[in-house]
């Protein structure tokens, strides 16, 4: 379905699912079950998917705008809806329409954000009254980034992404560049050269952000020259970094005008975005 020509009922309710950046990402170990232990500084950014919801009484979960190549039953939004309990005495379902703007496979958490939004919205529309702790227990089953989107604020994440502490950082603007390559997260986590023994911290310090890094970045650029090329382009203007397991890279700015000036220079050659940090998820506002 062409997402620019969505046929959405006028009584469907729409909500925004923001993307994220990992401003700092370190791998400090690995559990016996294979999950990596991470420390990361997450921030939400003003790049959004939009999802429309219309509750039905058939009990059916239907994604009306399936992603090409992904069976609806495997889509994280459908899986998220099916994790929620049914309201007592009712058989409720939902029809959903999605407009994807967050690039897939870019390390910006679009799928996880969409899944978290489904949990938040259906908890409200189905009147389930689950608290955030209960939602996080469901969300972590869908992916390591989902708890952060449920948390909904700039955070220091630990463990497998499920231990979150609110942190304060000044408002920032970012130029985000998406190279024309899809990075396999599984391949990077399994790579023999991946650093897995970074020193744990109590709390990262924004004033020391010049020392922030991404432990996956060196492995990714060795395997994907397109990512290295994008980093090199942004390196002309500052110290860029990769988000998550890639492939998106970004550069931070204290000034919106400076960010727009760099965006204007790189957007002719790359799929690029000029975005601002968000201190709170739009669902909670």
Q: What would your notes on this structure say?
A:
- With 285 residues, the chain is α+β, with helices and mostly antiparallel strands.
- The protein has one domain (8-284): Ribosomal Protein S5, domain 2 (2-Layer Sandwich).
- Helix content is 25%, strand content 27%.
- The protein is built from eight helices and ten strands.
- The chain has helices at 76-83, 110-125, 132-139, 146-151, 185-190, 217-223, 225-234, 256-266, and strands spanning 13-30, 36-56, 61-63, 93-99, 155-158, 163-166, 173-178, 241-242, 249-253, 271-278.
- The model has no long low-confidence stretch (mean pLDDT 94).
Mean pLDDT: 94
Treating each run of at least 4 consecutive H or I residues as one helix, how many helices?
A: 8
What is the second-level CATH architecture? 2-Layer Sandwich
Here the CATH topology equals Ribosomal Protein S5, domain 2
Structural class: alpha+beta
CATH class: Alpha Beta
Helix content: 25-40%
In total, how many beta strands?
10
Rg computed from alpha carbons, rounded to a whole number of angstroms: 19 Å
């Amino acid at each position: 379905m062409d997402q620019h020509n969505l046929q959405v009922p006028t009584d469907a309710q729409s909500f925004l699912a923001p993307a994220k950046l990992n401003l700092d990402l370190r791998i400090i170990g690995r559990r016996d079950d294979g999950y990596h232990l991470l420390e990361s500084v997450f921030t939400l950014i003003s790049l959004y998917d939009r999802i429309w919801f219309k509750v039905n009484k058939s009990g059916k979960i239907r994604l009306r705008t399936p992603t090409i190549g992904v069976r609806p039953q495997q889509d994280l939004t459908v899986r998220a809806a099916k994790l929620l309990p049914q309201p007592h005495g009712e058989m409720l379902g939902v029809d959903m329409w999605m407009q994807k703007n967050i690039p897939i496979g870019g390390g910006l958490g679009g799928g996880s954000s969409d899944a978290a939004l489904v949990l938040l919205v259906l908890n409200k529309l189905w009147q389930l009254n689950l608290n955030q702790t209960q939602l996080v227990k469901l969300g972590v089953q869908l992916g390591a980034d989902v708890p952060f989107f449920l948390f909904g604020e700039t955070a220091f994440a630990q463990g497998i992404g499920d231990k979150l502490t609110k942190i304060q950082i000044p408002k920032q603007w970012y130029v985000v560049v998406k190279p024309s390559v899809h990075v396999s997260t599984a391949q990077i986590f399994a790579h023999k050269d991946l650093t897995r023994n970074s020193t744990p911290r109590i709390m990262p310090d924004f004033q020391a952000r010049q020392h922030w890094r991404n432990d996956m970045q060196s492995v990714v650029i060795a395997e994907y020259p397109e990512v290295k090329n994008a980093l090199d382009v942004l390196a002309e203007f500052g110290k860029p970094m990769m988000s998550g397991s890639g492939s998106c890279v970004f550069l931070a700015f204290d000034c919106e005008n400076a960010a727009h000036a760099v965006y204007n220079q790189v957007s002719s050659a790359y799929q690029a975005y000029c975005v601002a940090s968000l201190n709170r998820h739009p669902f909670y506002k």
